[in-house]
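Agenda item 2: magnesium ion complex prediction
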Amino acid sequence: MRWKAAIFDIDGTLALMNKAEGTFTALPGAIEAIAACRAAGTRVVAYTNGTFFPPAHYYPLLADAGIRIEPGFLLTPAAVAAARLRDMGYTRIMVMGGDGTTVPVAEAGIEIVAPTPDAGPVDAVLLGYTRDFGATELEAVVQAVWDGAKPFAGSVAPYFASSKGRMLGISGAIAAALENATDQKVTVFGKPETAGLDMVAALTGADPSEMVVIGDDPKLEIRMARRAGAHAVGVTTGISDAAMFASFPEGERAHEVLPTLETFADLLKAPA
Ligand SMILES: [Mg+2]
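Presented output:
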């Protein structure tokens, strides 16, 4: 076996989400690439950088698109953030985010404070994807940080690939607003930070050098893989074309760039 674990991005890599319908469509070769990994003895992990849903919501949606992920082997930045914040000793945090963020935080045993004017002091704030906010919520989060809370986010990606093109990364936009107002840097747990790969290591027993990371974003999956010392494979089915992947310095570049996952299985046979 060439790699012990294959970590696939979801949006733009395995599938495209139709935001209006809440469904996924598998991208060419995605189902076959997963099957090839399993045949080779490589554990398959899906790691999205979106926090639209709690991890549990993705399994049936992806299964409807023919993409079957083992229970516990689907990660989101919110799930990574929740585990990390718990390990850092936070017990009560203000969350500005939807179910995709609040569910993993609650499951980690952390008390959630809603971003309201009378929220009272908190030690940390966590930003996740939500469309359900206004000036009141934004002001509450900013006030909490002005009052000393540490700011965190699952992801600060500027946008995601969707079936309708670029979709705004809301928590990235909120993080920019928060940094603008407070001069405090928001700490990120999602890609390209390597915290998610630590969770993969715990799940699979694989060292990063025994992992292959596959994604459509050179700034996210490829950067995460190269930072951790994993093998990095880019695909041009999402937000980046081949020229974009090639524009990065050699040490931050994907080891291979594929037009689709249809030829991914060939890499599993290549000599390490
Ligand atoms: Mg993607």
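Discussion summary: The chain has a mean pLDDT of 94.
Owner for follow-up: CH.
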